[in-house]
Amino acid sequence: MKGHFGPSLPSIYQSQQRSISMPDTNQTATENASEIPADAQADAPEEAAPEIDPIEDLYHGDCLSISGRSTLTYAIGRHKETGELHLRIVENSGKGMWFDGWAPAKDIDAIVKGATELTAKSFHALHPGKSINTGGFVMAVLKDLGLIRANEENTRLHEHVPATTFEKVAMVRMGKTIEVTPAKPAKRKAKGA
User: Do residues 45 and 34 lie in contact, with contact meaning Cβ atoms separated by under 8 Å?
Assistant: First the structure.
């Protein structure tokens, strides 16, 4: 399947709403914070501004799910401060739901490195308590990228492709060379200092 580069998918911010008690009744009403009377706003807690995603999308790609019944769209992103690569599932052509949060490359590598019996359940640790479909979708993407492959003895299991990391396979897919940050030379104390 083909991938594409491009801007981040648009984020949708919904207006923040809250429920307030109506005086002299047991009813509640939902109002926008801007519609709350000034004297009530003084007692209201401050509402936080929407958090800006510190991970920028670098690449979007498509692959088949493990079952082959749907097409998945995934994103590879880079954390703006640490430079670490991340992965997330963006879209599913089928009916299955999933969690669209980012998974850090180091966490993916920790699960995959040296493993010979990976299943969708192996990847649930990336997003604990979220949709169980996400693990299978992540596994499909990692298989498509070449980080894991079907186990020759049991095709229901997958194994790590030796000498690969998430960063290596992601960079190959994006058609980029791995940027190596040169080590800073050690500082020496001057003689007599």
Answer: no
Q: In this structure, are residues 157 and 151 in contact, taking their beta carbons and an 8 Å threshold?
A: yes
Q: What percent of the chain has pLDDT over 70?
A: 64
Q: Give the position of tokens 């669209």.
A: 100
Structural domain boundaries in the chain: 55-173
- Which of 84, 62, 79, 85 lies closest to 137 in space, CA to CA? 62
Q: What is the pLDDT of residues 103-157, one digit of tens each?
A: 999 999 999 999 999 999 999 999 999 999 999 999 999 999 999 999 999 989 9
CB 143 within 8 A of CB 159: no
Extract long-range pairs of 86-90: CB within 8 Å, 24+ residues apart.
86/55, 87/138, 87/141, 87/166, 87/170, 89/134, 89/137, 89/138, 89/141, 90/9, 90/60
Residue 56's DSSP bridge partners are: 78
What separation in angstroms does the CA of 156 have from each of 66, 164, 184? Answer: 10, 21, 46
Beta strands in 10-169 (DSSP E): 17-21, 28-32, 55-64, 71-79, 85-92, 103-104, 148-150, 158-160
Q: Rounded to the nearest 10 degrees, what angle do helices 133-145 and 105-112 cross at?
A: 90
The strand pairing partners of 60, in sequence order, are 4, 75
